[in-house]
Amino acid sequence: MLCSYKLWVQASYPPHLKLLNQNSNIPIPKTKTQFQRKSLDSRIDDIDDDADGSGLRKFALPSHVKSITSTSNPFVKHCLKLKNSSSYRHSHASALVVGTTPIREIYRYKESSQEKTVIDCLLLLENAEIPEGLDTHSCHVVRIGSMVMKKLSGVQSAESIEAIALMRFPTSFLNLTVDQNKSDSQSWFPSTHRILVLDGIQDPGNLGTLIRSAMAFQWFVFIVLKCLHSIIAPDSVLVNTQQDGIFLLPGCCDPFNEKALRASRGASFQLPIVSGSWYHLQTLKDTFNMKMLAGHPDIDGKLKKPFSLSQEFVHSVAHVPSCLVLGSEGRGLSEKSQLKCELVSIPMTGKFESLNVSVAGGIFLYMLQPKN
């Protein structure tokens, strides 16, 4: 199926082509279909060659398009680039959410919080019913073939996935390294009693699981993302003051990564996620007089002895505004986190020296969760 797409790219031509167009009397027979296809293919090349996502800002799918069956369709290529490239996602401030359950959860949460719906386009497998709860939603619905669904979802059996949503980044996402005007730390989170800080979490499955756990236990999250591109849509840096959130430190993977979204079950679209640096984290600490805690196994050779995550310790910090820093899967906490934080370990009777970060994080988040 051939469709024309609105791409916000200014056309430019080499000088010798301009001259040929102006002065040549040689007739060049070309049908309208051939001209449209060539023009469309050249614009797709622009998308594919845009490695860092900086050359393209918007890709609009015409409202009359109701079905896509070809994997070489321009919109499919656009969606694949969103799926595979972090910089491309952030230049467009959009991501793909795969699966009916996370799409429905995000939609219901946005409706209950009276936020604007973030679904730009809902891609449904041929003959699949619109998911319950989304049937009254006025987003653009496009039917796609099984080969397209398989390519976009990344699963072998297309029948296991019936829906994919193209969603704009939530307004609760804030990149402090880009938006220098958001210097007021009091506006970053609706509450600063409990902030989860992720330091170099690189595995998207662990990152998504921690975000999901943070939402379950009502923590706020601060994430410093080394991998994020420096281009963010202007309307994606506002903080919603009715949600929890996360803070990520350098080296973390993208929370809108496909696997991270799958593990979080859509929580990345429901929590305020703040991306910043240790400078921003120090500002937050000083502003709200927060205690800095960091999860660390109780092993020999550390700079200081960690506290044990006991009921007594939990009670001692119950009413103290605190940041909990969790380190990366391989190297653990960064040296700066170890120096600036009070270390806390999970007591274990087994002989393993440490736990997977998402498992340890779940224990910390549960034990230290804010009390009503």
TrEMBL record:
- GO molecular function (one): RNA methyltransferase activity
Identify the CDD domains for this entry.
Answer: SpoU-like_rRNA-MTase (cd18095)
Q: Give the UniProt keywords, A-Z.
A: Methyltransferase, Transferase
Which Pfam family is one of those matched by this entry?
Answer: SpoU_methylase
Report whether Lyase shows up as a keyword of the record: no
The tRNA/rRNA methyltransferase SpoU type domain sits at: 242-366
The domain of life for this entry's organism is Eukaryota
Question: Would the keyword ATP-binding turn up in this protein's UniProt record?
Answer: no
One GO biological process term is:
methylation
The family database entries (InterPro entries) matched by this protein are listed as: Alpha/beta_knot_MTases, Ribosomal_eL30-like_sf, rRNA_Methyltransferase, SpoU_MeTrfase, tRNA_m1G_MTases_N
**PANTHER family given in the database record:** RRNA METHYLTRANSFERASE 3, RRNA METHYLTRANSFERASE 3, MITOCHONDRIAL
What name does UniProt use for this protein? tRNA/rRNA methyltransferase SpoU type domain-containing protein
Organism equals Gossypium trilobum
